[in-house]
Design a protein that fits this description.
Aminoglycoside 3'-phosphotransferase, Chain: A, domain 2, Phosphorylase Kinase, domain 1, about 15% strand, 2 domains, alpha+beta
């Protein structure tokens, strides 16, 4: 999406005249993303949604609730720009000097490989990513005036159905050698997804819905959880639904795998070391999470199928929005199911 010059500054000034002057400077955020974001006055970020989404935007309730319970590990939420019932833009605070995980995590791993050092630093941040995600879920599970009863028990059947739907979509949209490898593993993937049918009720609550390292901003020694739009391949109802927090944990874990695949493509000679990092990063991230929010027995059973479902999501996302990303879920799912 191309945003006309001056449009973001005009909106930010209209919404926040006390902190954004008329005609303030703008600069686009140029990383790959589904939407188009513009930094205004080095103070706020205006994210234009492509396409606009009907009210209520999934972030409205979540961010209001987080503010009510005092969760501060998110950029400031300033509001939304809505036209005729459609949310066109989300305005949040700009975290100065912050990098998202596709920068800081990739850079940390690359630096460790380059210096022949241990993975101490990237694994430390993997553990911290798990911990901030647990704190997010605990905050979302805390009653507030916005959400007085934030947690309830429910069947994970919706995740089973979502997984089978994503498998069908991934098979339909993935061609070539990647599609062949996916098709070879379809029976095993389906069997793993079907294990969800035997899992009892689990806690359901508000979740992030698209939690990965790219949504974790690092500024200095702090992490901030960003971007509560929900999954770019989910429908509006799913983006607003209460779900098991394990969907977020599964997505976050797989994103550390994805970091490894990105670096391995650039440094194929380091493939074995990167495989070691991936296993260690997943363990560190999960340990950081469970130190604060231990998984129940049912949630532990859910984790493996939800991790596989996350990769199916990545196949569909690559097909619809970012074809050059396809090698990442291809490598990740092949590693997950090495013997088709």
């Amino acid at each position: 999406m191309s945003v006309a010059v001056g449009t973001s500054a005009e909106l930010a000034n209209r919404m926040l005249p006390a902190i954004v002057e008329a005609g303030a400077a703008e600069r686009p955020i140029t990383v790959d993303q589904t939407n188009a974001s513009v930094v205004v006055a080095e103070t706020v970020v205006v994210k234009w949604l492509t396409p606009p989404v009907p009210e209520p935007h999934p972030a409205q309730l979540v961010l209001a609730h987080l503010q009510a319970v005092g969760f501060t590990e998110v950029p400031a939420f300033h509001g939304m720009h809505t036209v005729d019932g459609m949310v066109e833009a989300v305005v949040t605070g700009y975290v100065a000097g912050a990098l998202d995980g596709w920068d800081w995590c990739v850079d940390d791993l690359t630096a460790a490989l380059t210096s022949s050092a241990t993975f101490t630093e990237p694994l430390r941040w993997a553990e911290r990513a798990g911990a901030v995600s647990a704190r997010l879920h605990l905050a979302l599970a805390t009653p507030s005036t916005i959400v007085p009863e934030p947690v309830g028990l429910g069947s994970p059947a919706v995740e089973h159905d979502r997984g089978l739907s994503l498998l069908q979509a991934a098979l339909a949209c993935t061609a070539g050698t990647e599609g062949g490898r996916l098709a070879e593993r379809a029976t095993a993937i389906r069997a793993l997804i079907d294990t969800i049918s035997h899992i009892g009720e689990v806690d359901q609550q508000l979740v992030h819905g698209d939690l990965h390292v790219g949504q974790l901003l690092r500024a200095g020694d702090q992490l901030f959880v960003n971007d509560f739009d929900g999954s770019p391949v989910a429908d509006a109802a799913m983006r607003r639904a209460r779900r098991t927090p394990v969907v977020d944990l599964a997505s976050l874990l797989q994103s550390f795998d994805h970091v490894g695949r990105v670096v391995a493509k650039r440094r194929p000679a380091d493939a074995d070391a990167i495989d070691t990092f991936i296993a260690a990063a997943l363990a560190a991230c999960r340990a950081g999470y469970e130190r604060l929010r231990p998984l129940t027995a049912a949630e532990r059973q859910l984790l493996a199928p939800l991790r596989a479902i996350q990769e199916l999501h990545e196949f569909v996302y690559a097909s619809r929005s970012l074809p050059r990303w396809l090698y990442v879920p291809d490598a990740a799912l092949t590693a997950m199911f090495p013997n088709p």
